Amino acid sequence: MDADRDSDVRLGWLVALVSDDEIAHRRALDRYLRSVRDAREARRAYDTLLMRVPRSVSAEDAAWERYRAAWLRTPAVALLAERIAPEDVPTWDRLPYALAYLEWEARFPGEWTRHAKVWSTKQHLIRRLAVPGHEPATRARLVDLVERVVNRRHRCKDREYSRVARMVDGPDLRERLEIARCSGEPWARDQAGHVLWLLRNPDVAINRANWFRWLAVHGTTGGRAACPDEKPDPETDLGPDVDDLDGLTPDADDLDDLAPDVDDLDNLAPDAAPGTAPTEADPDRPPPAGPSREAPTEPPVDPPTGPGPNLP
Length: 312
What we know:
With 312 residues, the chain is mainly alpha-helical. It has one domain (2-268). It is built from twelve helices and no strands. It has helices at residues 2-11, 22-50, 57-72, 75-81, 95-107, 109-116, 119-129, 136-150, 161-167, 171-181, 186-200, 208-218.
């Protein structure tokens, strides 16, 4: 319990990441970068101990615990380390921090991508928040998120916001989507139109295939229906310019949507914990037995590209 309260205190600064106060925003970003740096340094210290001969199991155990604690304090991990039932999400004590994290990605996409890009964290936070029963203030923030996302070029995992749209559906959301559908931007017209179609057809699955099926029939380059009071001009209303066509297809980062969705958080833990000394110096000699430990399995993170957790 004390650890949970300590974690909540450590996450409180996330709210400032979406502050209009430039100084507060910069301080929060520095805090985020420091948490990532601390985890990386703790991992390097642990790896250094593994290279020493003779090895000290007690020292390695202590270094591993320091590394694990630092890793769990990084927001991308901490926000999903706690398991919570869907019906408890509207009263989840970390809900404000999860919202702030998603709003950070939505409002400052370049900054988020440069410093904090963990697409699986974004995906699973969106899915976690896609539940009914939110308080009015929370629902208003989720509606704002959906509106902001449909009005920008598609980013990886943005399609997951359609799940949120179904949970916060209402006249206000549909009115905003209609405005986006009638905007001058082809990607906004298509994305908003697709979300509206999903709202009117709640049994349709939200996936890549249905997006392209809808786009072929109703998209800007297909048989798009005119907006209210709009009279298409056959000479000018022929679809987007060539330069705009990239807005109608997923970005390169969206290619991981081709992989199966993962709903089991257990499958999203780091591949393996370090517990074996490197053997490059003498490939014929088996590594000395080290302490047996398992990697933290609570948080969903992307598969690591090298030793240690996949930190931004």
